[in-house]
Amino acid sequence: MRITGSIARPAAARIPWLTIGVWGALAILVLIAYMRAPQATTAVLTSTIRQSTPIILGALAGIMCERSGVINIGIEGMMLISAFLGFLFNVWTGDLFLATLGALLVGAAVGAFHALMSITLKVDQIIAGTVINILAIGTTGYFYQQGLTTRGKLTPVSIPFLADIPIIGPVFFSNPPITYASLILIVVVHVLLFRTAWGLRTRAVGEHPAAADTVGIAVNRVRYINVIIGGMLAGLAGAFLTLESVGSFERNMTNGRGFVSLAVMIFGKWTPFGAWGGSLLFGFANALQSQIQFLKNQLPSWLAWIGDLPPQFIGMLPYVLTIAVLAGFVGRARPPAAIGKVYEKE
Amino acid sequence: MERAGSQFSPRMDSRIQIWGMVHAAIVPIASVVVALVVGAAIIALSGANPLVAYSALFEGGLGSGRAFSRTLEKATPLIFGGLAVSLAFKCGLFNIGAQGQLLMGAVSAAFIGFSLQGLPSALHIPLALLVGALLGAVWAAIAGTLKAFTGAHEVITTIMLNFVAFNLTDWLADGPWKDRTPGNIVARTPAVAPEARLPDIVGVPLGIILAVLAAIAVWWLIWRTTIGFELRTVGQNASAAKYAGISVRRMTVLAMVASGFLAGLGGAVETLGVVGRFQPGFNVGLGFNAITIALLARTNPIAVIPASLLIGVMQAGASRMQFNSGVASEIIDVILALILFFVAADGIIRRVLRLRAEEGERVTLSSGRGS
Amino acid sequence: MQKSLLFITLLLVVALIAACGGQQASTQPTTAPAATTVPSQPAEADCPKPEVLCVGLVTDVGEVDDKSFNQSAWEGVKRAERELGAIVNYVETKDAKDYAANIGLFIEKGYDVIVTVGFALGEATIEAAKAHPEVKFIGVDQFQAEVVPNVAGLIFAEDKAGFLAGVLAAEMSKSNKIAAVLGTNLVPPVVAFKEGFENGAKYVKPDIQVISTYHPGGLDTAFTDPKWGADQAKLAIDQGADVIFGAGGKTGNGALIETAANKGVYCIGVDTDQWETLPEARPCLISSAMKLITPGVFDLITKAKEGNFPAGNYVGEVGLAPFHDFDAQIPAEVKAKIAEIDKGLRDGSISTGYKP
């Protein structure tokens, strides 16, 4: 397996001093804030996790697809369709577990559709994603009707003892099920990609399909399965929206979160933990944005200008950051080499 | 082998042109028909009569002089958007950011339109159009430059720039450039000066004339100039282009700039010709429709015109369809997505019609990523 | 062979999606748009006749069933269908540049009264009204700077409704911290609700802490982001807020539903009596800051029918919705105080402090 050396490239090999510095500084700031206002600080951190959950799930979906060489810009649409049908399953069955399962299956089906288009039908992968996005907006908008109500949504489950630890307890150990699942899935996807034979095959297919083929890996089969798994992750993100976070469906309720997931995936250089860092930053920026508005009247005068910033500017932040990352200001992002290319045996 | 290298096909050049054009139109037309049929099935399944819905749709888009002029109005920005996407396609670039470039063009044309008063039309209109187009070009140039010099994929950067443009223009329309006339409460710019409004030339709106001229200009640029040849070469095989001494970076930036110029011009035409000011909420979803149009037209600039008219008819007729038949106008999005699907997955249509696949006809773009 | 198989698979996928929707449409036929509008079709041809009252509604960008102002206005039109025997129909606007064309659909068919919803339609409404003096126009949320004889602008003092909601919230708060989760600051009624809410709370409890937040996105997302609303409501609850005011279409609804999942926290809705429109929020919904669009639209349609159509601005009713199941939990002195302040707001002795 000579290719091992080259396919390991995207994983960070050097010590990321900048990342450590940024997170260290943030941690210190959080501790200072906690000493001054423990309740509000915990609330902001809890909100950070909550707002990052659909983003990291979407990003994991993107990582699964793109690591195997299939671009997926249809995450937004996959989330929307799964959110919609997950909501309908909940209306019909009244069972949140079944509805979540249903959303996962829908995600898998849409993932299979994406794989069908991009692998078998050889549709340009970006166009395939665009088809999914437009189709999702159109079908959910057409078939959605008001007046459907459900009985509740997934509620937080506190883990005994762990939930009582200050800061960490309420933030990590007092969450609803899909949030726990997302935290576990970050580790699962990481292990899957970097510690298992399947992950090795996936990355081989994403970096050098021809070489992978010569050592006997069924390139397109690996891609199919990864894209379907990606679809399920996006489906879980959709389920999170309607079954855990909101409890109801609205037209176009993803509101660009699938695209933020893409951004975060790149920000994290196609690694699960990197993407998690990106989505936490996104969640933190959003929570902080509201917190600043909440405290508008209590800010010291030299900080008052932050409270006066138009909300639109803070709304821009994740997108500008992504462009900056892509531009190489925050380290170079290199996608898997074979991404976007249809693999055809000679 | 991977597809990227197998783009050159001697058959492409030797094919008789007329037959080629007819032949090239079969798949798009069949795609539209199949998409409409599937759309009809969905309408029928949801309990409405598809014939009633479709007849209202086409009545609303073509049924009267006024309906047709609304179709033209709808088609105008679509032509500009479709041209922008097609031109970028020719260079192997996927400009998904026509939406943002159009917004930037629209808001800046509005600024020139309302802030300058008393200029003669002959000066004011070209100035506002030019500024709008340039802002669109600048917006796209960000993505083009990043692609050329850092390899940042233009799909991601243009999507991100779309969101930035949405927020930026909303803020402009509600902040520094807000219409402060008494009685106004919403986010919008003041109306542009009457001299800056686009006139009708012998009954035809100047906007659609400009759109058609732009299509011809793009065709000329692509097929009759050295730059066009270099653009196409880069689009077909970047490494071969490099061997031939063409600067891939220069062409990448240039293609994005030209693409953004067109989209920005489209936005300026909307502001000066149709809306009369900038107001958030116009032309949402144009970026995606532009992609559908570019593919439907097989990135041929002239074919962009009929493709835009077709989608313009649907958009113009959607309200009447909902009014007459109660079928929600979201069905148009479904039909457009299906058209895009069948055009892109042309293997399905070819299979049904027993057409041979033409190597080199299909649009392949994403292979450029990461290189 | 393989490809035709794929084609069939694909059709099955499409059919599956369609079937899901079809099944859903059949379970609730009353709410499907097709079902409600088709029966009125045959009589629509009679609209030009003077004795037949036809009322059309053009929505702002959005749907007629948005649980918000479009829907409230449409309810008013439907009431005219029931009580005045009017023939009614609506057009949903998909693109802001279609306002004039959509109004034109009704004019062409000879409709007598056309309701246009939202300030953004103001200009198109005035233009259409000037060109068609025989048609009466009702502009919801459209302030009339000059009087056009056949246009009535139905406007509301949202700050007063917000003020009363603020009073109720402050009185019901035990933690002395209340919150507002709002749509965008780009739309003035939202700002009016917010300022009224804050000032109302401070009017009865000067030391109360009111925390509020606007959606950071543009107009395209600010009112359709329930996820954001839910997140911010939770953020406020986690730091001790115990009454949440959700004002901002579906974004606000998200905040209300989230609050319902938290014990011991109250919520206050907006625009309509959300007890009826948002049953999911009932566990926490003590009231709603209403602007009564439905009766306002209906009154104006009635006046148009009777021939005493009021041109210019027509100020609609605002106020608090009934307390429903929470009636017993709200102390009598709080109810008395709200009634007293309501009276003060009406006679002008109390100011909301909101300046547009």
Concise summary:
The complex is a heterotrimer of chains A (346), B (371) and C (356). Chain A has helices at 4-7, 17-36, 38-67, 75-93, 96-120, 125-143, 168-172, 177-195, 197-207, 209-214, 219-246, 257-267, 272-294, 304-308, 311-326; strands spanning 157-158, 174-175. Chain A is an all-alpha fold.
For the sheet with most strands of chain A, the description reads: 2 strands, antiparallel
**Taking all residues together, what is the mean pLDDT of chain A?**
86
Low-confidence segments of chain C, given as residue ranges, are 1-42
Any idea how many domains of chain A? 1
CATH class of the largest domain in chain C: Alpha Beta
Report the C-alpha radius of gyration of chain C, rounded: 22 Å
Strand portion of chain A: under 5%
Protein architecture, described:
The complex is a heterotrimer of chains A (346), B (371) and C (356). Chain A is built from 15 helices and two strands. Chain A has helices at 4-7, 17-36, 38-67, 75-93, 96-120, 125-143, 168-172, 177-195, 197-207, 209-214, 219-246, 257-267, 272-294, 304-308, 311-326, and strands at 157-158, 174-175. A two-stranded antiparallel sheet of chain A has the order 1-2. Chain B contains 15 helices and two strands. Chain B has helices at residues 10-14, 17-45, 50-62, 65-90, 98-115, 121-150, 154-174, 206-224, 226-236, 238-243, 248-275, 286-296, 301-325, 331-344, 346-353, and strands spanning 200-201, 204-205. In chain B, α4 (65-90) crosses α13 (301-325) and α6 packs antiparallel against α7. In chain B, 61% of the residues are buried. Chain C is of the alpha/beta class and 356 residues long. Chain C has two domains: 44-156 and 295-303 and 307-315, 3-Layer(aba) Sandwich (Rossmann fold); 158-290 and 323-347, Rossmann fold. Chain C has a six-stranded parallel beta sheet with strand order 2-1-3-4-5-11, sandwiched between helices. A six-stranded mixed beta sheet of chain C has the order 7-6-8-9-10-12, sandwiched between helices. Chain C has helices at 2-27, 33-37, 41-44, 69-84, 99-108, 122-131, 158-172, 188-204, 219-222, 226-238, 249-260, 274-277, 293-306, 332-347, and strands at residues 54-61, 87-93, 113-117, 136-140, 151-155, 177-182, 209-214, 243-247, 266-271, 285-291, 312-315, 318-320. Classes of the chains: A mainly alpha (346), B mainly alpha (371), C alpha/beta (356). Chains in contact: A-B, A-C, B-C. At the B-C interface, α2, α4, α7, α11 and α13 of B face α1, α2, β2 and α5 of C.
